[in-house]
Write a structure and sequence with these properties.
GO terms for molecular function: ATP binding; cobyrinic acid a,c-diamide synthase activity; hydrogenobyrinic acid a,c-diamide synthase (glutamine-hydrolysing) activity. Its cofactor is Mg(2+). This is Hydrogenobyrinic acid a,c-diamide synthase (Glutamine-hydrolysing) / cobyrinate a,c-diamide synthase. It holds the Pfam family CbiA. By secondary structure, this protein is an alpha/beta fold. The protein has 2 domains: about 220 residues, P-loop containing nucleotide triphosphate hydrolases (Rossmann fold, 3-Layer(aba) Sandwich); about 200 residues, 3-Layer(aba) Sandwich (Rossmann fold). About 30% of the residues lie in helices and about 25% in strands. It is built from 14 helices and 22 strands. β16 and β17 form a beta hairpin. α1 packs parallel to α2 and α1 crosses α8.
């Protein structure tokens, strides 16, 4: 009943193995539902691009155990095959714990684990490494190992003998070659739209999967869970006469979004419309709310700054209808962005701050709202995730813009964060709307109040 692709550590080849398996399955005309552990946006984009089916996040911290189980069993059972790609190393969770880790999710879903191991520089020591992972948590079932970056046939023979000695099954051995290189950015893999010649790559990945992986074993491991074919309860569809479109910024600058957000809106009287700020266009006139997700606006700061129609449209819209902006989306609402080279470009100027490159901020956050926004009320408590390198400078509040909430998380003091008023919610924190019903209820109320 499906499996989890995990690893010893980050950058070991989890997404690479996932892409190889998807490419092979698509080559034999099979459908596959992929899932990603945790709050990641970039890896799921790549899995979605190749599978042609939206990858779905499974996050025990953001969404809870019941939501994760229902999501996996429903969507995983609607296709010919399914599997879960893990996050970081197998046991890596919040801080020094395994809370929210791939291991915790594998146990919750009762799925076997396939480890992909970077084999560079390894021989007999591989045994100690794998045995340590196998014995660290006896409740986990490690089904076997895929070796990555194997350098020569001699190296492969040594590693296979090592695995035989500790009774660990090998599911394949991937060579060190340029066809298996995946480009990366400072927050992880490059966005899917930056992959050149994807169709050519998929053909190569298909061939590599057939030549270097134990396809027959994976055919059994990737069988889907049994689907109940029922409507999932966390995406309730409420019939009503309410029908007001929501514009969502979607282009190469803004693309960090969970699949369920659109589904949730559309099932509750809020059909979504794509808006492309980089194309210097007006927000669609029929829109009654605007969502600006995260992304990499700093990489497109010059083009965004020149998109005066887009920026002026946001200014006008912000005075009439609710706006939800997170991370990079919030940066668009500020006065200016300093790009990667440190050049400053003006933005919408709705919120009183500038954004420049800073230190990496990452981790789950518990947020307690201090003021009302389109999705919160005073005292609302939500769980979100923060992941960014840009930081805010010269921020200030006034009679029109209030501080949004207090944040706390592992190894950090409680801090004030975000900007809001009754029409604006702007924060570094990414939220998972589908697992927090109050977000939708408050958003819907904000939209209705402005109609």
């Amino acid at each position: 009943m499906a499996c989890v692709i995990s690893a010893i550590s980050s950058n070991s080849g989890k997404t690479l193995l996932s892409l190889l398996l998807i490419s092979w399955l698509k080559s034999i005309n099979k459908t596959v539902q992929t899932f990603k552990v945790g709050p990641d946006y970039l890896d799921p984009q790549q899995l979605t691009a190749v599978s042609k089916k939206a990858c779905r996040n499974l996050d025990l911290v953001l969404s809870g155990e019941s939501w994760v189980k229902e999501n996996f069993n429903h969507y995983g059972g609607l296709t010919d095959y399914s599997f879960v790609e893990g996050v970081m190393g197998l046991f890596d969770g919040i801080g020094s714990s395994s809370k929210g880790s791939t291991a915790e999710l594998a146990k919750v879903l009762n799925l076997p684990v396939v480890l992909i191991v970077d084999a560079r520089g390894k021989a007999a020591s591989l045994a100690a490494l794998i045995k340590g992972f196998r014995e660290h948590d006896k409740e986990l079932k490690i089904a076997g190992v895929v070796l990555n970056n194997v350098q020569t046939p001699r190296h492969e023979k040594i590693l296979f003998e090592v695995l035989d000695q500790i009774n660990i099954k090998s599911f394949g051995s991937l060579p060190l070659c340029k066809d298996l290189y995946l480009p990366a950015r400072d927050l992880g893999l490059a966005p899917a739209h930056e992959i050149l010649d994807l169709d050519i790559k998929v053909k190569k990945w298909t061939s590599i999967a057939k030549d270097y992986l134990d396809i027959e074993s994976f055919r059994k491991l990737l069988l889907p869970p049994e689907s109940n074919n029922k409507t999932v309860s966390f995406l309730p569809k409420k019939e009503s006469g309410f029908m007001h479109p929501i514009a969502i910024a979607e282009d190469e600058a803004f693309h960090f979004r969970y699949q369920e957000t659109k589904e949730l809106l559309e099932d509750n009287g809020m059909p979504t419309i794509t808006w492309k700020p980089l194309e210097n266009e007006l927000i669609p006139k029929e829109a009654r709310g605007l969502i600006i997700p995260g992304g990499f606006p700093e990489q497109h700061a010059h083009q965004l700054s020149n998109s005066r129609i887009s920026l002026n449209s946001i200014k006008i819209f912000s005075k009439k209808y609710p706006i939800y902006a997170e991370c990079g989306g919030m940066m668009l609402l500020g006065e200016s962005i300093f790009d990667i080279e440190g050049r400053e470009y003006s933005m919408a100027g709705i919120l009183p701050f500038k954004a420049k490159k800073g230190n990496l901020k990452i981790g789950y956050r518990e947020a307690t709202s201090k003021n009302k926004s389109p999705i919160t009320t005073l005292g609302s408590k939500l769980i979100g995730h923060e992941f960014h390198r840009w930081e805010i400078i010269n921020e200030r509040y006034n009679s029109k813009i209030n501080p949004l909430w207090d944040l706390k998380g592992w190894n950090m003091e409680i801090k004030n964060e975000g900007f809001c008023n009754h029409l604006i919610h702007a924060s570094w924190v990414h939220l998972h709307w589908a697992s927090s019903p109050l977000i939708l209820e408050n958003w819907k109320r904000s939209v209705m109040n402005k109609v």
